[in-house]
Design brief:
Layout (H helix, E strand, L loop, with lengths): L5 H10 L3 E4 L6 H16 L4 E5 L8 H4 L7 E3 L14 E5 L11 H4 L3 E6 L10 E4 L6 H12 L5 H14 L10 H12 L4 H8 L5 H12 L2 E2 L5 E6 L1 H7 L11 H4 L6 E9 L2 E8 L5 H7 L3 E2 L3 E7 L2 H15 L1
Parallel strand pairs: 1-2, 1-4, 2-3, 4-5, 5-6, 8-9
Antiparallel strand pairs: 7-8, 9-10, 10-12, 11-12
């Protein structure tokens, strides 16, 4: 499929109306920041737009949701009637490598004219218009660059959403994908009055006491292989049940094994449901973890990837570690 230019996509945005905005299931900060930024962008252009959410994350991300009204977004549930959204002709899909990552919305979005904007190298270019650039640190960076084609000024709500997206996907400018453009973007937003400190404080904070108890359990389970290059942690479904934590709070655990000095690749195995394991990979300098994730039905970036695998927890751990050891 053709990769369109930001100019082409911007011209379509200007000439049309009625947009649904959506990111992938289990959204990270880049997905959340990007969909919010696009909503604020379209508001500036006086376009009709509604955000589609897989779950209600409004309380978690108050820093951006405070700029929205309740009817600006729609939360999908098992009883949702998506026909209510038939008036919208177009869908803007952000930070999503393929339609499968849209969950319950997939069949509905597939009926729309799709604008696909992403930075995952394995994006399937499923849109009618596609802009995929893996050299950008975050989709928030792509949106920031698109503003020049749309003549949109950066107001507080838009700047906050873009900063959230970029800071989340660069680890507050600590990850290897933190290129000079990422630093310039954050400096520009800081000069425009965006509270970068507040966003970093949010990204680095813990959501609850239960999260800390869960983290203690997960850290207790960390292991390192004989080469001291691979580290991983495990959290079983039973451990999660014992702590009684909300599943949606469990994220970013992979950073802890990855950040052990001397480690090349960190892995987290989180059994969110019995025999259903959420696996995340992070690497520092040379291992392309997206290739590992692909072998288990997932994907992502060279330094950050993930997948979900059904099977016995111990067997899944062994199979994944055997594959990683063959490549490290």
């Amino acid at each position: 499929m053709k990769n369109n230019s930001l100019s082409e996509i911007s011209n379509y945005i200007k000439d049309n109306d009625d947009y649904l905005i959506i990111g992938h299931i289990d959204p990270d900060g880049d997905a959340v920041g990007s969909i919010m930024a696009y909503k604020f962008l379209l508001n500036s252009l006086n376009k009709s737009a509604k955000i589609l959410l897989h779950s209600d994350i409004s309380s978690k991300y108050k820093m951006v949701f405070k700029y929205l009204k309740n009817n600006d977004y729609y939360v999908c549930t098992t009883n949702s009637n998506l026909n209510k959204l038939d008036d919208f002709s177009n869908a803007i899909v952000l930070d999503t490598a393929n339609l499968e990552r849209l969950g319950q919305y997939k069949k509905y979005i597939n009926k729309k004219y799709i604008i696909n904007i992403d930075h995952h190298q394995d994006n399937s270019r499923f849109g009618n218009l596609n802009y995929v650039n893996a050299e950008n640190s975050a989709v928030g960076m792509i949106i920031y660059k698109q503003l020049q084609f749309l003549n949109v000024d950066i107001k507080k709500e838009l700047g906050t959403a873009i900063a959230l997206a970029v800071l989340a996907d660069t680890g507050s400018l600590k990850y290897p994908n933190s290129d000079p453009d990422s630093f310039r973007l954050i400096a520009d937003l800081k000069e425009k009055g965006i509270d970068i400190v507040e966003i970093n404080r949010f990204l680095g904070s813990y959501p609850s006491v239960k999260y800390l108890k869960m983290l203690a359990e997960a850290l207790h389970n960390i292991q390192v292989d004989k080469t001291d290059r691979i580290a991983w942690l495990v959290l079983s479904n039973q451990e999660i049940k014992n702590i009684k934590i909300n599943i949606e709070e469990i994220n970013n655990l992979v950073n802890y094994p990855r950040d052990i000095r001397g480690i090349e690749v960190g892995i987290s195995f989180i059994e969110k449901k019995q025999d259903f394991i959420d696996i995340s990979f992070r690497s520092h300098s040379y291992l392309d973890v997206s290739k590992i994730a692909h072998k288990f039905g997932g994907g992502g970036h060279p330094r950050a990837a993930g997948t979900k695998v059904e099977g016995s927890l111990n067997k899944v751990i062994k199979d994944v570690l055997d594959e990683v050891k063959r490549n490290v």
